[in-house]
Amino acid sequence: MAASERLAKVPVHIITGFLGSGKTTLIHSLIEQKPVDETWAILVNEFGQIGIDQAMFDARDDVVVKGLPGGCLCCQLAFVLQAALVNLLARSKPDRVIIEPSGLGHPAGLLDLLRGEAFQEVVEVRDIIATLDPRRLDDARSRTHDTFRDQLDMADAVALTMLDQSTPEQLGAAHAFVAQRWPPRKWVQEAPQGELPIGLLTQSGRAEGSDISVPANHQQLATTPSLAGSFFDFPPPPGKPQRETGTSLGYTSTGLRWHPSERFDLDSLATCLGELPREARIKGVFHTDSGWKRFNRAGGTLSVESSAWRQDSRLEVILPDTSPALDIEGQLRLLTLG
Question: Which candidate, 255, 229, 225, places its Cα nearest to that of 81?
Fold first, then answer.
C-alpha cells in the first residue's frame, strides 16, 4: 500500500541556479530525452515583468509550459504558484513536473510550499538540481551573493554547465567549490552543451535539501508581482512597444514587447545585443528579416536560433544596479524595418 501511494504522487523536480547558468538549456536537453509515454509540465519563474521563458520552449502536445513572470516563487509568487500548480495537476495530469525558479529566486520557500499541507499527499519533491557556470566563481559579486551560495547549499546534486566557455582551471575550481559543500552532493555531473542524462532525473530520490530559511532580503521584497505582459495578453499596437521594469535584490530587469508585424534587421539586432555590457543577462524572441529568431546571452556569449514563437517580439535584459542606465528601447527603435 505504501508503495502504491508513492507511485501515485507526481514527482516534482526543482532545477535552480544563478542568472545565466543554463537552467533552460538543461531542461531542453531533458525534454528531448523524455520517455514517450510521459506528459510533463514545466513551471518557469522569471525575475522580469514581461515574461520571456515560455517563448524559449517550442510547443509540444506532451509538454505543458507555464510562465510565472514578475516576482520570486519563494515569496511574492507563492500564492500564484500554488494556484498554477493545482490547475496544472488537475487539467494536464502530468506524469512529471519540473519547476525552474528565477536565477535570483531562493528555493527555500518553494520547497516549504511543496512539502506543505496543500501538496504533501499529491507530489513528491525529488533531488534538487543546481546548475553552476564555473565562470561565475571568478566574479566576487556572484560568489559572495547569498542566493548564489544558498542555491548550491540546498541542492542535492549539481550540474556543471557552460563547459565550452570555461577553462580547465575554472572547471577544476568549480569541482573544488562544490566539494566543499556539506553534506556532500549526491552527484556532480558535467553537462556539455547543457546535456544531462535523463536517468539522473527519472531515477532520482526524495529531495533532502539543507535546512536553510528564506533570507530577510527576500522576505522583505516590496515589489507587487505583476502579470502584465503575460502570454495571454494582446500584443501592443504597432509602433508602440510595451515596456516594464522591476528592481530588487541588486538587479534591474527591463522588458519590452512589440507587435508581431514589426520586423527587425537580424544582423544589426545581433550586433546591438552583443554590444550590451558583458554582465547583462539577455533573452529575447524577435520577428526579423530572416524569420523568427530566439536570442540568448549569458556571460557575454550570444546565441541565435530559429523559433516557433509568433505571438509578439519580446526582450528581457537583467543588469546589476551598479551598471549605467541604458536606452535599450531607443537603440532597438532604429533597427525596425519599414
Answer: 225
Of residues 217, 218, 207, the one with CA closest to residue 73: 218
- Cα–Cα dist 209/219, whole Å: 20
Cell numbers for 298: 549569458
**Alpha-carbon distance values, 80 to 10, 133, 177, 256, 301 (Å):** 19, 29, 35, 23, 33
Find all residues with CB under 8 Å of 212, minimum gap 6, and list them: 108, 150, 153, 154
Q: What is the pLDDT of residue 72?
A: 56
In this prediction, residue 197 carries a pLDDT of 96
pTM for this one? Answer: 0.76
Task: Please give the CATH topology (third level) of the domain spanning 242-337.
Answer: Hypothetical Protein Yjia; Chain: A;domain 2 (3.30.1220)
Which residues share a beta bridge with 16?
Answer: 130
Q: Is 240 exposed, middle or buried (0-12, 13-18, 19+ CB in 10 A)?
A: exposed
For cell 516534482, what's the residue? 12
Separation CA 130–CA 152 (nearest Å): 6
Q: If you average pLDDT over residues 154-160, what whole number do you get?
A: 95
φ and ψ of 165, to 5 deg = -110, 5
Res. 300: pLDDT tops 70: yes
Q: Which architecture characterizes domain 9-216 according to CATH?
A: 3-Layer(aba) Sandwich (3.40)
Which ranges in 49-155 belong to alpha helices (H)? Answer: 78-91, 107-114, 140-143, 146-154
